[in-house]
Specification:
Length: about 140
């Protein structure tokens, strides 16, 4: 129901260009074989500050990690979600609580109810897309 609205090109551009440069990446760890690690590295190459959010709260790609969004002691602009769809809604709700401007659900992560709640709270949202694929397309 909501997924198509959340994947339009204008929303993607608005988040990547205007939402801000501090991206909390939920599910990011030092496991270089995981998609979150590669996407976070691409975001950094495009000038985004990546904030790892993972239960281990480890430093990743030179940035201090935090166990939850609520533990981050500074504002976060975008919350990039690398958890399965069953857990993603709770992360979106936490993103709203911490004052993020946007939520981005990665490829394969879809929760229509979370999309509705997040948009109703005034945040931009994208589902089932990858910023590492979309960000190089911005200037085309």
């Amino acid at each position: 129901m909501y997924a198509d609205a959340g994947t339009d090109a204008e929303t993607i551009r608005r988040i990547l260009r205007n939402a801000g440069d501090t991206w909390a990446v939920v599910g990011l760890s030092n496991n270089e074989s995981r998609a979150a690690y590669g996407v976070a590295a691409v975001l950094q190459r495009f000038g985004k500050r990546v904030v790892p959010v993972h239960p281990k709260a480890e430093r990743v790609l030179g940035e201090e990690g935090y166990a939850s969004l609520a533990d981050i002691p500074f504002p976060v602009d975008v919350v990039d979600v690398f958890v399965n769809s069953e857990l993603a809604g709770a992360v979106a709700d936490e993103a709203v609580r911490v004052g993020a401007k946007a939520v981005w659900f990665q490829l394969g992560v879809v929760d229509d109810a979370a999309y509705g709640r997040t948009r109703a709270a005034g945040l931009d949202m994208v589902m089932d897309h990858c910023p590492a694929i979309e960000i190089p397309r911005l200037d085309r």
